[in-house]
What we know:
Blueprint (H helix, E strand, L loop, with lengths): L1 H12 L5 E4 L5 H7 L4 E4 L5 H7 L5 E4 L10 H13 L4 E6 L3 H4 L10 H14 L3 E6 L1 E2 L2 H4 L3 E3 L6 E7 L6 E5 L1 H15 L3 H9 L2 E3 L2 E4 H12 L2 E7 L6 H11 L12 H5 L7 H14 L1
Parallel strand pairs: 1-2, 3-4, 4-5, 5-10, 6-9, 8-12
Antiparallel strand pairs: 7-8, 9-11
Helix pairs in contact: 1-8, 3-4, 4-6, 10-13
Amino acid sequence: MQGGAVIDALVKHGGYLIRGLSRNVEAEAAKHFVSKGVEMITGHLLDKESLIKAFAGAYAVFGVSIPFQPEGETVQGQNLVDACKANDVPLLVWSSLPSASALSNGKYRGVLGFDQKSEVDKYVRSSNQPAVILHTGTFAENILDYGYLKEDPDKPDNWHIYTPIIGGDVHWPVTYPTVDLGPCVLAILESWENDALRAELSKDSIVVVQHTISGNEMAETIQQVTGKLCDYVTLPVEMTPAPFIQPYSWGNDGFFTYGDKINPQILVKIGVKLHTFEDYVNDKVVPFMKK
């Protein structure tokens, strides 16, 4: 999702030679990018040598780790950094998440994805690799991709958002990556030669979040935009797959927050306008409900 969004933005803009990394360059997704003029190279985030080869001559690398790997995400991110360093890549854009342990003052440790990506952030800083670190919220796309939004089987045109553990009034930071990640990375690339902007972009992690929203507000937005009745339903912990109990519990406790760091001015300064959950509903949920 994220890599594809970056490729789409670069292709649309023009002027860049793009390489994509895939574990299987014969896969349909890889062939799709080849059809757009992307050079697809075989490689894996757990194979550092393949990354070093892929990054040869690169001006910039966009990287995001793959979840649910036995080796975890930290080693993937560290391999990305090492491969950039080996090639003297002038810019790494690393898509990451904050430390769940730090945000919860140690109440939650090892939350899926969060703490491992956060360790990579530290590695980036200690390596002196020129980089911009992006932090995202929960993805707006999850509401359809994870099947949270369902039509009531007994009441046509009545809809429910089913989400594990997280109460309806808890606010989450939301990112719409398929429309926002690409323009963010493109704008960073276009700004990197400006010394003042480069210093500001690399000073601290940049939160790619326009606003926060609660489950109840999501349902209200869907209802207002589509005219369909919609409510929010919290599923009990007993119905939650084991790997997701901790991250959803962490979120339900209100720890997934960026405070006043959302919608940062540096993105406005480089010409990026982030989108809202309402934008996502208009783009994707409306057509989905019409099917």
